[in-house]
């Protein structure tokens, strides 16, 4: 990323970005120029550097826009930003938070302290290379790509890796039908059972119909039902299923008015193949590009249910790709 060669601070931010594990990708110099033009000298010197997702590059590098706080917790603050196409979400996340595709990752952990102490609805600003929320000023000093680079448009997955993912998720020797998620109805009439049935029949349209039952289902800012569908959508896109775009567009259209704004934003990113760093690590492990075991553990440890739900979505996508595109 363009972070160091054109930055006045020399190698310091490069070292921080390297230690954070963020891949560095070059972006045009105008990002720096816009930042300098729009920031006052006092704020420019006190800004906190962060590694920003290219999924929110247009917002960060664009004109300064008013925003408001959606939610603030010790490891993250989420901002709603009005745009020409509706509302986008940008997150400022500490290094120990999930690496979401809409996030700017700080080079420090939360240590149990909130990033800001502002209530929901408090004003903020996004644009000109910066995020300003309360006394916190964050500058995009490095960039990372939330769409993992895989070996090909339709990558082959390691069979042993797929078995390892399934066994870790479901439990070795445990039937998939026994898998449950908190907040989602279990049993043969539940939505997860319907999704498994659609996969067994290699019926992509039936799998899509389960989205009407899953979107918005479950507690929290990202309901478990949404996370299952986000994992499925992103998996289909990244594994090259020919109907991935149609499937993802249909699921995303269902989300309007049925789920939270944060979850809907993450579904939009999933439809473009932009995923969390933890999800991307599992995919890279499945194609043999990194150790798989630690990647699976990292994903499953994400949130109270999100990581397990996303992993279930990935397994669903793997099965749908295998069963609906296999040469018969």
Automatic annotation (TrEMBL):
Q: Which domain of life is it from?
A: Bacteria
- Family matches, as Pfam families: AllH (PF11392)
Q: Where is this region: Disordered?
A: 1-32
Q: What is the lineage of its organism?
A: Bacteria, Bacillati, Actinomycetota, Actinomycetes, Geodermatophilales
Q: Which InterPro entries does the UniProt entry name for this protein? A: AllH-like
**Basic and acidic residues bias spans:** 1-18
Report what the protein is called: DUF2877 domain-containing protein
């Amino acid at each position: 990323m363009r972070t160091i060669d054109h930055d006045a601070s020399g190698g310091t931010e490069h070292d921080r970005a390297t230690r954070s594990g963020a891949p560095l990708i070059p972006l045009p110099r105008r990002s720096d120029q816009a930042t300098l033009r729009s920031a006052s000298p006092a704020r420019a010197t006190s800004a906190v550097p962060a590694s920003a997702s290219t999924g929110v590059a247009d917002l960060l590098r664009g004109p300064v826009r008013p925003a408001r706080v959606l939610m603030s917790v010790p490891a993250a603050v989420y901002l709603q930003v009005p745009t020409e196409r509706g509302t986008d979400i940008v997150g400022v996340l500490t290094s120990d938070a999930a690496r979401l595709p809409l996030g700017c990752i700080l080079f420090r952990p939360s240590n149990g302290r909130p990033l800001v102490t502002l209530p929901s609805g408090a004003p903020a600003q996004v644009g000109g290379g910066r995020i300003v929320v309360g006394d916190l000023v964050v500058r995009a000093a490095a960039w990372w790509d939330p769409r993992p680079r895989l070996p090909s448009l339709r990558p082959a997955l390691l069979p042993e890796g797929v078995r390892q993912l399934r066994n870790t998720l479901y439990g070795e020797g445990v039937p998939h039908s026994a898998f449950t998620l908190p907040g989602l109805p279990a049993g043969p009439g539940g939505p997860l059972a319907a999704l498994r049935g659609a996969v067994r029949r290699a019926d992509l349209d039936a799998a899509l119909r389960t989205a009407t039952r899953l979107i918005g289902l479950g507690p929290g800012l990202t309901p478990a039902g949404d996370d299952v569908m986000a994992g499925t959508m992103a998996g289909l896109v990244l594994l090259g299923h020919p109907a991935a775009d149609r499937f993802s567009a249909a699921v995303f259209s269902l989300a309007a008015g049925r789920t939270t704004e944060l979850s809907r934003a993450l579904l939009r990113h999933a439809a473009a193949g932009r995923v969390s760093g933890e999800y991307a690590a599992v995919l890279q492990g499945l194609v043999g590009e990194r150790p798989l075991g630690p990647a699976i553990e990292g994903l499953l440890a994400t949130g109270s249910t999100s990581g397990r739900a996303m992993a279930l979505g990935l397994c669903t996508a793997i099965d749908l790709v295998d069963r609906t595109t296999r040469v018969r």
